[in-house]
UniProtKB/TrEMBL annotation:
<feature type="domain" description="Polysaccharide export protein N-terminal">
    <location>
        <begin position="107"/>
        <end position="172"/>
    </location>
</feature>
<protein>
    <recommendedName>
        <fullName>Polysaccharide export protein N-terminal domain-containing protein</fullName>
    </recommendedName>
</protein>
<keyword id="KW-0812">Transmembrane</keyword>
<keyword id="KW-1133">Transmembrane helix</keyword>
<dbReference type="InterPro" id="IPR049712">
    <property type="entry name" value="Poly_export"/>
</dbReference>
<dbReference type="InterPro" id="IPR003715">
    <property type="entry name" value="Poly_export_N"/>
</dbReference>
<dbReference type="Pfam" id="PF02563">
    <property type="entry name" value="Poly_export"/>
</dbReference>
<keyword id="KW-0732">Signal</keyword>
<feature type="transmembrane region" description="Helical">
    <location>
        <begin position="12"/>
        <end position="29"/>
    </location>
</feature>
<dbReference type="GO" id="GO:0015159">
    <property type="term" value="F:polysaccharide transmembrane transporter activity"/>
</dbReference>
<keyword id="KW-0472">Membrane</keyword>
Amino acid sequence: MKNIMINKYKYYVYSLVVATVTMGFGQSIQELQEMRDEYKKFQKEQGQVLIPQIGIEGIEPATGLPREAQMIPYLPEKITEQEKSTRHFGYDFFTRRDSVAFWENLPTPANYLLGPGDELIISLWGETQLRETYIISREGKIYDEKVGLLNISGRTISEASDYLKTQFGRIYATLNSKKASTFIDISLGELRSINVN
């Protein structure tokens, strides 16, 4: 097989050299036709020799149409135990995504800025009892019936706590007095979802 390929290669090189040399001297149409016939004869001879050695019944002409796809059967019994247990790294994160609420258990960082969609829980205790949940609006504000409209967006939790203590202290006098008998706590409920691009 290797010898046939080498002979074929030699013949092509020889034909190419002869063709380029003879083109310079100008050949007649008859000589070119003879060379073409000789080349076709060589192709047929080589093709007849190659086909039995390779074991091909015949070569199908190229039609440009796709051949029927070969279906590879799925044989689960041939899969090894190691292949069954091997998974891509991080695959479990997507399959068990909703079963583990690990984001809810993490504390918010000190530099987290409040924004629209965040939930604030304001608790007052002592002389005055109050526990209210507020969701920051798209404009970055919350509304309390007694205090009014409060702009919270863009503040950290500690900044918001100081601001809310001052604002609620205008209504609840015991919150900011020297002997405070009302206390305030501001905490985050559910956080807004942050889109990562």
